[in-house]
Design a protein that fits this description.
The complex is a heterodimer of chains A (285) and B (162).
Chain A: H1 2-8, E1 12-13, H2 14-35, H3 38-41, H4 54-58, H5 66-84, H6 89-108, H7 118-126, E2 140-141, H8 142-170, H9 179-187, H10 201-215, H11 224-245, H12 250-256, H13 267-281
Antiparallel strand pairs in A: 1-2
Chain B: H1 2-5, E1 18-19, H2 23-46, E2 70-79, E3 84-86, H3 89-92, H4 96-101, H5 103-108, H6 114-123, E4 130-143, E5 146-160
Antiparallel strand pairs in B: 2-3, 2-4, 4-5
The chains are: A mainly alpha (285), B alpha+beta (162).
Chain lengths: 285, 162
């Protein structure tokens, strides 16, 4: 039990959680404006079309209308951009989590639930608990470690448990069925059109998908280059899915960055270094 | 030695100091994480979409037969000037998948479709008002998984302005 607790809270550099925080909150802002702009259109729907989910029935949340949707949109956008700076990580973090959850309920309480962002919601829920963290700081923190570990677990769970859901809803015949064939025929790109003409190919692909999804938890056992290979494989899986049927799970790709040594990515430092180098070379020329 | 024993996640034996958690903080975190995992497992085993965010991850989880017809749910409308139109998602703010999700409700209470006419008017205040909306289930026939071009339309619910 003690080993489990230590694993859940393995320390990571503060710079890593700072970078992850900036990435996640910038994504929330981008999500509002670019990735799921349709959520805002629910502002014009009369309340009779609102069908609250369980969580919306348990919590005393108002029926969305023009005012609520507009206020949540602008406050969330401002809070997410402010949180991306790393300031007031607890206050702004909890505010963004609460507002983004409400935004998701506005999105999904009209008859269709999307399944692409469980791990992003987990990231938003745990990031405030990591506390203050500045970019580039090598000091390691167990608080930060727990936040990233939870996000990693959620990211892997979405693979593992989606195979489980395939068995539950599709049954074992999912493996030999025509789900991939129909997906390729309905929204396949030119890159994969040929695949429906090759007998059994897409059935093999279905077996491979389930094998991949069920094997993702091994990322927690791997070390060194094998670890990075597995993380790269998870990203490559989505690159392939996008190339084949133009389905992307952007929020999930963002949450998966919790596996990466983000503290080494320092765009602000690189720009500063580039500028000073230019300043020192300019007088010479 | 370094590359072998250091994990990217954490067990670096280098010098940076470590901020430890107190006993209470550590155990609260472990319990919270295990509770969350238990909820997610329960959702996957017996939950439904209604249990968001702990519902099952059921994207593309149903198994399909190659030649089962494809359902294409459409909103056919007529406006006050007599024009026939097929409503796009952005014209009402109500997505096609949401029409499908609430279809049983629209079948029982076709009057609810009046809310879509209201939303259409809010989003297109200058366009003529809608006087009729039909939810149409278009069944596209497939052969070898490819559309044959033939289809049959079923009107699932109809609303008329009074």
């Amino acid at each position: 039990m003690r080993a489990l607790a230590r694993w859940f809270t393995s320390p990571v550099p503060l710079g890593r959680v700072a970078a992850f925080r900036t990435l996640v909150y910038l994504f929330v802002a981008a999500d509002l404006v670019f990735f799921t702009p349709w959520v805002r259109l629910h502002a014009d729907l009369p309340g009779s079309l609102y069908q609250p989910l369980l969580i919306g029935r348990l919590l005393p949340l108002p029926t969305p209308g023009y005012l609520l949707v507009t206020v949540v949109f602008w406050v969330l956008l401002a809070a997410a951009l402010a949180a991306a700076t790393g300031r007031a990580p607890r206050l702004l973090g909890w505010l963004v989590f609460a507002l983004y959850l409400e935004w998701m309920l506005i999105a999904m309480s009209y008859g269709k639930v999307d399944h692409d962002r469980f791990d992003l919601l987990v990231a938003l829920a745990v990031l405030p608990t990591a506390g203050a963290a500045r970019h580039g700081v090598p000091t390691r923190s167990e608080r930060a470690g727990w936040a990233l570990r939870c996000t990693q677990l959620a990211a892997v769970a979405t693979y593992f448990l989606s195979s489980w859901a395939k068995l539950r809803f599709g049954g074992p015949e999912w493996l030999t069925g025509a789900t991939m064939t129909r997906a390729v025929l309905r929204r396949g790109t030119e890159l994969v059109e040929w695949s429906t003409h090759v007998p059994h190919l897409l059935v093999v692909v279905q077996f491979l998908i389930v094998a991949f999804e069920l094997s993702t938890p091994i990322v927690f056992l791997l070390r060194g280059r094998w670890y990075y290979l597995q993380v790269a494989l998870m990203y490559a899986f989505h690159a392939l899915v996008f190339a084949a049927v133009t389905i992307s799970f952007v929020p999930h790709l963002v949450a998966m960055a919790s596996f990466l040594p983000l503290e080494r990515v320092r765009p602000a430092c690189w720009v500063a270094r580039l500028l000073t180098r230019r300043r020192t070379t300019v007088p010479a020329g | 030695m370094h590359a072998q024993t250091a994990t990217p996640a954490d067990t670096d034996t280098g010098s940076p100091p470590v901020q430890r958690l107190g006993n209470r903080g550590r155990w609260v975190r472990v319990v919270v994480a295990l509770l969350g995992a238990a909820l997610l497992l329960a959702g996957t085993l017996v939950g439904q979409d209604d249990d968001f965010p702990f519902g099952p991850f059921r994207m593309y989880a149903t198994s399909d037969e190659l030649n089962a017809p494809v359902h294409d749910t459409r909103l056919h409308a007529i406006d006050a000037s007599g024009h026939h139109l097929v409503l796009a998602d952005a014209q009402t703010g109500f997505r096609r998948a949401e029409v499908e999700g609430q279809l049983p409700r629209f079948r029982r209470h076709p009057g609810l479709l009046g809310a879509l006419a209201t939303a259409y008017h809010r989003r297109q205040p200058d366009a003529p008002r809608l006087v009729r909306i039909d939810v149409v289930d278009r069944l596209l026939q497939l052969r070898d998984g490819r559309p044959t071009g033939r289809y049959t339309d079923h009107v699932e619910a109809t609303w008329r302005a009074r």
